[in-house]
TrEMBL record, chain A:
The chain crosses the membrane at residues 20-39, 299-319, 340-367, 387-410, 417-436, 481-499. Pfam families: ABC2_membrane_2. GO terms for cellular component: plasma membrane. This is ABC transporter permease. Keywords: Membrane, Transmembrane, Transmembrane helix. One of its GO terms (molecular function) is ABC-type transporter activity. It comes from the Bacteria. The lineage of its organism: Bacteria, Bacillati, Actinomycetota, Actinomycetes, Streptosporangiales.
From TrEMBL, chain B:
The keyword Zinc does not apply. One of its GO terms (molecular function) is ATP hydrolysis activity. The keyword Plastid does not apply. Keywords: ATP-binding, Nucleotide-binding, Transport. Belongs to the ABC transporter superfamily. It comes from [Actinomadura] parvosata subsp. kistnae. This is Multidrug ABC transporter ATP-binding protein. SMART domains: AAA. Residues 5-230 form the ABC transporter domain. The lineage of its organism: Bacteria, Bacillati, Actinomycetota, Actinomycetes, Streptosporangiales. InterPro entries: AAA+_ATPase, ABC_transporter-like_ATP-bd, ABC_transporter-like_CS, P-loop_NTPase. Signal peptide: none annotated.
């Protein structure tokens, strides 16, 4: 009696009960049906004044990530290698706060933490073009950033009155190096960036940007909501020098600026030069887009599918206890641990396949339907998409194993199904429904098996972008594989206890 | 592997109840061994211990010289029918046997063979949930025969069978034993084992009360007893008592004679011209023999307290 035979026997058992097969088909159909229903039922439209226009889609960065690329750029062309050096003397700005009197703009002076100004090399002035920049931020010191998603911290000190910061950005082929200095003499390297395939002719210059002011407000129902409001930063920069083959004339670009119906730019940036001093004002951010919808939101059917998968997995073992069939099973395979492991492999395996079929059909199809309805979905690289799709199937499969183990522990269907739903489905629903305080929601998704849903998160929380990173918005407290490991650990623990109980007792 | 079941010194408690109290016996190949005793005597528990389902507190049980749980393809060593109702109702009879076959590395061909053997081909693709108890018993026997095992253990296989089914299973059990298998059949009704069992293990209160060949048991219980019907009871009594027999009057014209063979009774009465209408030698049924045995066991138990 090899393990292969036990597996084959369990598989034969599963496929010969029509209700269970129907349940597994329902797992696939729930994912597909609800996903497509969500996609076809969603539309979006944007208006410009009184005119309906297709909603603008965000620009894409060099690696295909959807990005926000809005800043004020004062630059000149650079052909080949070269560098730029400058001194940032101050950063001031203004922030619009929630209206104290409704309808009356409430603007105060100040800077948002990630307001940034400094030096940049960019492939072109197109939105989304490759870049590398060294900068001073309002509250996060000196940073070296490139291509939207990459951020390296330099010195922790920003600028203050009487304490300027010198910056230098050098280009050698496709390698860009950022340095900082307190006095223009002693230089410290902040970081380097390799911009693959950077052409000889690039733009080099000064920039300023100020992301919207994100404020999180507590929802009266519990949970939180975030709102972003206008902010701008003005940096005073002098001692600007550029080396290399350049034209020597500065051009100004308000990259990514929106225009109102009357053609005037909305919240424009600007440059005021007085002698060698550049006062650059910028609005917006140079960062990955975190506001559009993610691919995993198309898997709305996962919860229903999960409940069905739990029921099938529980019945796969409790039906045998109910009928006394477990004895027959143990007569055929007296090594009891093997039987339970074989059951887990079969239940997990078929649930995985059912979930995989559902998710693999749903994600690409629903994203296409959404696009047709004018709704943008944040693109992800193929490996991440595979993780999201296979991860959804994995959550179903491992939850099924957990449910099966609970079935073997309780030997009765109702308590096993209830406990499985209470530990997997309920914490996820509570944590993502925006009804619990954020910290409680995060705690639930750290310590309960529902942590496994993290495997579906396609867009990471970026440290250098302030956004509303809460479970309700699809951001999990644990990394994807870390969260999944928590779920797997629970399933393994339950299965281990079930094997122990099966071995330790008369059948 | 040798076709035997060895049970040695099994003791088992369920809470404060003693289920097995030193159960010891051996089942030999080539005959049907009846495993009889009243309900609660420990038959099913013994079988579950032999099959590795229950763990004994003391003692051991071997099948073909090995503990059941060490068998690699157990159904090729022992076929067991414990509970005919242990079926997934939604699964067909054939599929039920198919997963069992797969667990032993056997194919669908063997499944069809045993279905034919128990006469279930017609209903093989029907859901087992709709089966009568008799059909379930047949399906359970098919499962026990799946691995063509040298040892068979059937717990109450006659339950729910119609008379035709009982005849069929008796014939099947005899032929399986005749092939050299060890066949252990439990029953709480001795009459079911009549003409089937060659050997008996009689149990009561968790231990073996008698471990005897059926022929010996019946001979012992029958003794020499002759029933005589006569119009002249007093004459018959004096003649037979004078010849040394023990005579007891039972009904109005009936005498029970002990200590004398039927032939001698007839000869004596003829010689003395005593009229009689009927002489019958009594042969105890298995049931009677069994009742006598278990009554003794109960009395013995009572005295031992």
């Amino acid at each position: 009696m090899s393990f292969r035979h036990v597996l084959l026997a369990e598989w034969t058992k599963l496929r010969t009960v029509r209700g269970w097969v129907a349940g597994l088909v329902a797992v696939s159909l729930a994912v597909i049906g609800l996903g497509l229903l969500f996609a076809t039922g969603s539309t979006s439209s944007c208006s410009k004044g009184k005119v309906e226009v297709p909603c603008p889609t965000p620009p894409l960065g060099p690696d295909g990530t959807a990005v926000e690329d809005r800043f004020y750029f004062v630059s000149m062309p650079l052909d080949g290698n070269g560098s730029i050096t400058a001194r940032v003397n101050s950063m001031t700005g203004q922030i619009r706060l929630p209206d104290a009197t409704p309808g009356v703009r409430n603007v105060v002076s100040g800077t948002v933490p990630w307001a940034k100004a400094g030096l940049m090399v960019k492939e072109s002035t197109e939105q989304g073009a490759a870049y590398a920049a060294v900068m001073v931020t309002a509250a996060h010191g000196v940073r070296m950033q490139h291509d939207f998603t990459h951020d390296v911290a330099g010195g922790a000190q920003g600028v203050a009155s009487g304490r300027p910061r010198w910056l230098r950005l050098s280009r050698t082929q496709d390698t860009i190096t950022g340095e900082e200095s307190p006095d223009g003499k002693r230089w410290t390297k902040v970081g380097t960036a390799r911009l693959e395939g950077l052409p000889a002719k690039v733009r080099i210059g000064l920039f300023a940007a100020s992301p919207g002011d994100v404020r999180v407000e507590t929802n009266p129902l519990g949970g939180t909501a975030a709102a972003g409001r206008f902010s701008e930063v003005t940096a005073l920069v002098d001692e600007v020098s550029v080396s290399g083959t350049t034209s020597g004339t500065w051009a100004q670009n308000d990259i990514g600026v929106d225009y109102d119906v009357d053609g005037t730019p909305h919240h424009p940036g600007r440059l005021v030069r007085s002698g060698g001093t550049f006062a650059i004002t910028g609005v917006g951010d140079i960062a990955p887009n975190t506001t559009e919808g993610t691919v995993e939101r198309t898997l709305t059917g996962l919860l229903i599918a999960l409940v069905v998968a739990i029921v099938v997995a529980v019945l796969f073992v409790t039906a045998e206890y109910r009928r006394g069939l477990m004895r027959t099973t143990l007569l055929a395979s007296p090594r009891r641990g093997r039987v339970l492991v074989a059951k887990a492999v079969v239940a997990g395996g078929v649930t995985f396949v059912a979930g995989l079929v559902g998710a693999a059909v749903t994600v690409p199809l629903a994203v296409r339907i959404l696009r047709g309805n004018g709704i943008f979905t944040l693109p992800v690289d193929p490996l991440t998409q595979v993780r999201v799709v296979a991860g959804a199937a994995g959550v179903l499969a491992v939850s099924a194993v957990l449910a099966l183990a609970l079935g073997a522990l309780f030997r009765r269907s109702a308590p096993a199904v209830i406990v499985a739903i209470v530990v997997v489905v309920v914490p996820y629903v509570l944590a993502t429904a925006s009804i619990l305080p954020d910290e409680v929601a995060r705690w639930l998704l750290r310590v309960t098996p529902a942590a496994g849903f993290a495997i579906q998160q396609s867009v990471p929380a970026y440290e250098h972008v302030i956004s509303h990173y809460v479970p309700a918005m699809g951001y999990f407290p644990l990394p994807p594989w870390g969260g999944f490991a928590v779920l797997c650990a629970y399933a393994a623990l339950a299965l281990g206890l079930a094997v122990r109980r099966l071995n330790g007792r008369d059948a | 592997m040798e076709a035997t079941i060895e049970v040695a010194g099994l003791r088992k408690h369920f809470g404060r109840t003693t289920a097995l109290d030193g159960m010891t016996f051996t089942v030999l190949p080539g005959q049907v061994t009846g495993f009889v005793g009243p309900n609660g005597a420990g038959k099913s528990t013994t079988m579950r211990v032999v099959l590795g389902l229950d763990a004994p507190d003391e003692g051991h049980a071997l099948v073909g010289g090995r503990p059941y749980r060490s068998l690699r393809r157990p159904l090729a060593h022992v076929g067991a029918l414990l509970d005919a109702g242990a079926l997934q109702p939604a699964r067909t009879a054939r599929d039920h046997l198919l997963w069992l076959a797969h667990s032993q590395g056997l194919g669908a061909g063997r499944v069809d063979e045993v279905l034919a053997l128990v006469g279930l081909e017609e209903v093989a693709r029907r859901r087992a949930g709709g089966f009568s108890l008799g059909m379930r018993q047949r399906l359970g026997i098919a499962a026990a025969l799946l691995g063509d095992p040298p040892v068979l253990m059937l717990d109450e296989p006659f339950n729910g069978l119609d008379p035709e089914g009982i005849v069929w299973i008796r014939g099947l059990l005899r032929s399986l034993a005749a092939e050299g298998r060890a066949v252990l059949v439990s029953s709480h009704l001795m009459s079911e084992l009549e003409d089937t069992a060659g050997h008996l293990v009689v149990v009561g209160r968790g231990r073996v009360v008698a471990d005897v060949a059926v022929s010996e048991l019946i001979a012992a219980a029958s003794a020499d007893r002759v029933t005589l019907r006569t119009a002249d009871r007093s004459a018959a009594m004096s003649v037979l008592a004078g010849a040394g027999a023990t005579v007891a009057a039972s009904e109005r014209d009936t005498l029970v004679v002990s200590g004398m063979a039927a032939g001698s009774v007839v000869r004596l009465l003829g010689a003395h011209q005593v009229p009689f209408s009927e002489v019958s030698a009594h042969r105890a049924t298995l049931e009677e023999a069994y009742l006598e045995l278990t009554r003794d066991a109960v009395e013995f138990k009572g005295a031992a307290r």
